[in-house]
């Protein structure tokens, strides 16, 4: 399913993989985010951090009428404030969607799938 945006010149169709790449890049650029997680960890049998090619497994895009909602599944760093990380991810995802793709998400839901300790 693609997100369709109506403009005065016609209709623009954006595939979910494109949106997932932009959303995943915005989410992982925030301090405290270790990486993206799969939305269906049991079904996908994935307990690891997703790579850039697999960001679409950690992002759900829904469109109802002209309202776009995005769900982002992340793994956070141990010892960081989760609520602050989620708020920063929401802000960054909305900003990147508006500047890079030209549409805004009405809702950005962030789901923390796990907490990791990074070994130095």
UniProtKB/TrEMBL annotation:
InterPro entries: Asp23. It comes from the Bacteria. Belongs to the asp23 family. It comes from Jeotgalibaca porci. This is Asp23/Gls24 family envelope stress response protein. Pfam families: Asp23.
